């Protein structure tokens, strides 16, 4: 999308504003399926938590994706968007047993990552097919908060506890139809991923009636010019060959599954915000925007870097700015970043704002959540209205203070 188009969308729909490029999402999906074209049965399950707008789910359904969900609410969103239960996998962590049963009742594939829950579910529902999430104890990911395959992770059943898993399966007679792993996000070294895959292959040999092997995701996307990213094409070439060999050795048709979120939607997203003030102090020039970490928390939460472009003045001389928000706390998006000269009223575009951005937005400081727009066929389509004051009051119950408490 061009700077001019982004400015026009800000003028049409207001700001702050999230914009998603439908064509980019489609191209990322095709890039992944092309990389694994030599696998006969491939399934891509989009990780709903990355961006859960119904319109995005419907778009992904149209191009062939399934869904990866982590809550009953995400399952319900998927069903509402038109996905059939067999196109959804549910991989929760620490949820109630009642929620697990509710999802299973809907006919959705469940993925269990806890020994006690596995035993309880197997004893009560031995005929319901279950996938098991293995922790391979392989460290991957760009930040401790998104590395989930290491030994201290709360996710998955330790690969070293395989004897316990097999004992539970034998005692309950439950049907294990899938094995799953997820090492973490922002994977740089495909060698580490392939090493973890071998652990999953070894684990799979313990089960005779598997339908699929799920390798999670965590593929890194570039956040700035010349940034490192996961080499999907190289991974596709090497893992496809190994998977096909394993499936032949296993003696049963198997599906290769992935659960990408960020890879599919991150680069498709733009966050647009207007500059309220340009403020110079003794050592810094601040560009203060009409937003804050209530709308985009990743830079403060993960230390993530989002390329920021002044789309109102893209060709001007670059100067150094510290871009900050309007929240009554420190909410810095960028420190001393080179950006085309900024004036009050300019529109700044934050790139890579498609994944874990709006989905983490809040009403902190009682601010409204922004609108969302889908850029498709050369025009912007509103897919979420901007919140209003009435939305802040919704679900709140007025309380009449008793006379006895009045001062």
TrEMBL record:
It catalyses: meso-2,6-diaminopimelate + H(+) = L-lysine + CO2. The keyword Amino-acid biosynthesis applies. GO terms for molecular function: diaminopimelate decarboxylase activity. PROSITE patterns: ODR_DC_2_1. Pathway: Amino-acid biosynthesis; L-lysine biosynthesis via DAP pathway; L-lysine from DL-2,6-diaminopimelate: step 1/1. Its EC number is 4.1.1.20. Residues 18-354 form the Orn/DAP/Arg decarboxylase 2 C-terminal domain. Belongs to the Orn/Lys/Arg decarboxylase class-II family. LysA subfamily. Specifically catalyzes the decarboxylation of meso-diaminopimelate (meso-DAP) to L-lysine. This is Diaminopimelate decarboxylase. The gene is lysA.
């Amino acid at each position: 999308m061009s700077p001019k188009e982004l400015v026009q969308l800000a003028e049409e729909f207001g700001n702050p504003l999230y914009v998603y490029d439908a064509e980019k999402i489609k191209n990322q999906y095709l890039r992944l399926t092309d990389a694994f074209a030599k696998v006969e049965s491939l399934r891509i399950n989009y990780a709903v938590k990355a961006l859960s707008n119904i319109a995005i789910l419907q778009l992904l359904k149209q191009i062939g994706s399934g869904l990866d969900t982590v809550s009953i609410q995400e399952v319900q969103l998927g069903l509402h968007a038109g996905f059939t239960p067999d196109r959804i996998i549910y991989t929760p962590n620490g949820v109630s047993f009642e929620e697990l049963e509710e999802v299973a009742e809907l006919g959705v594939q469940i993925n269990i990552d806890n020994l006690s829950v596995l035993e309880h579910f197997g004893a009560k529902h031995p005929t319901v097919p279950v996938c098991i999430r293995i922790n391979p104890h392989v460290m991957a990911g760009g930040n401790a908060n998104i590395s989930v395959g290491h030994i201290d992770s709360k996710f998955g059943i330790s690969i070293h506890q395989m004897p316990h898993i097999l004992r539970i399966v034998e005692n309950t007679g439950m049907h294990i139809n899938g094995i799953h792993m997820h090492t973490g996000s922002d994977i740089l070294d495909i060698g580490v991923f392939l090493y973890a895959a071998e652990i999953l292959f070894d684990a799979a040999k313990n089960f005779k009636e598997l339908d699929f092997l799920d390798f999670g995701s965590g593929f890194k996307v570039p956040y700035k010019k010349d940034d490192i990213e996961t080499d999907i094409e190289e991974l596709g070439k090497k893992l496809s060959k190994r998977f096909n060999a394993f499936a032949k050795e296993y003696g049963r048709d198997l599906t290769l599954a992935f659960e990408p979120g960020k890879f599919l939607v991150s680069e498709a997203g733009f966050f647009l915000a207007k500059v309220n003030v340009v403020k110079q102090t003794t050592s810094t020039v601040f560009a203060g925007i009409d937003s804050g970490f209530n709308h985009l928390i990743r830079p403060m939460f993960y230390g993530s870097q989002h390329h920021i472009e002044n789309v109102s003045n893209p060709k001007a001389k670059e100067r150094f700015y510290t871009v900050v928000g309007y929240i009554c706390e420190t909410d810095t998006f960028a420190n001393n970043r080179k950006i085309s000269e900024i004036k009050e009223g300019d529109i700044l575009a934050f790139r890579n704002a498609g994944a874990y951005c709006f989905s983490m937005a809040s009403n902190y400081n009682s601010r409204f959540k922004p609108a969302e727009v889908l850029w498709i066929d050369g025009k912007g389509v509103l897919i979420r209205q901007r919140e209003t004051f009435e939305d802040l009051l919704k679900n709140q119950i007025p309380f009449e203070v008793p006379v006895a408490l009045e001062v």
